[in-house]
Amino acid sequence: MDKFKNRVKYFIIGLSFGVLLVYFMFGSRGCSWLPENRVKNMVGEKEIVVGDSVLAVMQCIGINNDDIYELLKDDGEVEFSLSETQKLPKTYYIEGYKDEVLYWAKFALYEEKDLAEVTEVFLTGAAPCEINVTNEFYSTMPLPHKDVIAIIESHEFRILADAECQMEFYGISQEDLFEFHKTAEINIERSEPRQLPNPFYIMNGTLNNKPFSVKYIIGENRTRIHSIVGENPTDC
């Protein structure tokens, strides 16, 4: 019975975090069951990865991570006529506008890996790119900074004991700590935004003109500041 209760608890927690992630990424559209919105939700709920050659094309034509995630929001349109859903992995073309210029990305959905891969990108009018790398290496595309901030700020902060000790050691005020995430950048390699039951984010930035990393654990009712790591080790 206890195992069953724990499974139900983790299911509810996972569902809550999934709804939270969809809400901050996609707004009110996240609850819509229209075919186009279902596709964008399916893509956005997965870990989005990109190969090094596609990333090089993105950099060449001026498309960034935020632009890719913008396609999954209200203004993005799924081109079903170009998408291929009868084979695996399913692929979807989603287009939008950047500075009034049409662009699109092709997403491949790998159900067994819970991944969505950006396999092609295109910007109208962009000059051809000469790319000298292959898709041998892949990296995760981090969420837009504003979305990460919204998730971190979705609950009240709670500073855990180790972090309180580290605050005192480094001479960091609570006010400065609570503002840190707004200017810090997510360390996507060390973060686990889809871990259950407690996803977490590692944010890198500066406090008092010195570099720090802060770990935020997203709980049911609180965003817990777990640890603060600076240049000098502490005894905390």
Structure in words:
With 236 residues, this protein is α+β, with helices and mostly antiparallel strands. The chain folds into two domains: 33-141; 146-229. 32% of the residues lie in helices and 32% in strands. The protein has helices spanning 2-26, 35-44, 52-61, 65-70, 145-152, 161-170, 174-180, and strands at 47-51, 77-84, 90-98, 101-110, 115-123, 138-140, 156-159, 185-186, 200-207, 210-218, 222-229. Strand 3 (90-98) and strand 4 form a beta hairpin. The longest helix has 25 residues, at 2-26. The radius of gyration is 20 Å and the shape is elongated.
Summarize the structure.
With 236 residues, this protein is an alpha+beta fold.
